[in-house]
Amino acid sequence: MYNNLLERIPRGLPKRAKTLMMLHNLITEIGRNDLALLYTLTELNLSYNKLTSPKLHREAFRKLRVLETLDLSGNSLHLMPLGLPRSLQVLEIKNNHLNSIPEGALMGMEKLRKLILSDNQLKLNSAYQGAWMELSALTTLDLSGNQLSHIPSDLPESLEYLYLQSNHISSVPALAFEGTPNIKGIFLRFNRLSVDSVDESSLAHLSNLQVLDIGTGNTDLPFKREEMEEEQET
């Protein structure tokens, strides 16, 4: 039902639907019971509508207990919604106005593998303490295009790909990736890094690292491209 002029989720949708695609509409509100009968949904796409945080009921998703993929990108949310299904494996809320991840918003989401929060207004203190550690199955975290001044702490051990391009990060301390031994890709282009602000020991223990993208957009590269390639070969 994408690319129409819908302002609300229609009533009477098939109760056994597994996929509902309502992107590129004019939906401004999701009430408590708008999704209550769609309990078999595994994929819901509400991206590029007109949703705002006050108009998204905190219990709107309570019946979606088998939902695996939720896309809320391209709306006007400033808070990560509470009450998201704990069954989620993929959550995308890119290109919104997110500036806060409220206490408990990620609690119990032990199946989430991919979290995309790029192009928002998140800062280092926007997420409650321990938020990322809640996500014990997370392999991909995309926080590019935000306002982070440092690499987030308490990243989950399961993390494999971390996207932090286009932030305000000015240093990579020695313990930045201490808790992420399985990481394969780190992306740090277009930040404020300089030759003296990256502690090389922060990468020494990352035996699974395949991609370190720290090039274009920083003030001075801490590693020459040839050195990075040699390290990857060894």
Model description:
The chain is low in regular secondary structure. The protein has 2 domains: 1-98, Leucine-rich repeat, LRR (right-handed beta-alpha superhelix) (Alpha-Beta Horseshoe); 139-234, Ribonuclease Inhibitor (Leucine-rich repeat, LRR (right-handed beta-alpha superhelix)). Helix content is 4%, strand content 12%. It has one helix spanning 225-233; strands at 19-21, 43-45, 69-71, 90-92, 114-116, 140-142, 161-163, 185-187, 211-213. Strands 1-2-3-4-5-6-7-8-9 form a 9-stranded parallel beta sheet, with no helix packed on it.
What labels describe this entry?
nine-stranded parallel beta sheet, Leucine-rich repeat, LRR (right-handed beta-alpha superhelix), 1 helix, 234 residues, 4% helix, disordered C terminus, little secondary structure
Brief write-up:
This protein is largely without helices or strands and 234 residues long. It contains one helix and nine strands; from the N terminus they run βββββββββα. The protein has two domains: 1-98, Leucine-rich repeat, LRR (right-handed beta-alpha superhelix) (Alpha-Beta Horseshoe); 139-234, Leucine-rich repeat, LRR (right-handed beta-alpha superhelix).
Number of helical elements: 1
| Total domain count | 2
CATH superfamily of the largest domain: Ribonuclease Inhibitor
Pattern of helices and strands: EEEEEEEEEH
Distance between the termini: 51 Å
Please give the CATH architecture of the largest domain.
Alpha-Beta Horseshoe
- In the CATH hierarchy, what is the class of the largest domain? Alpha Beta
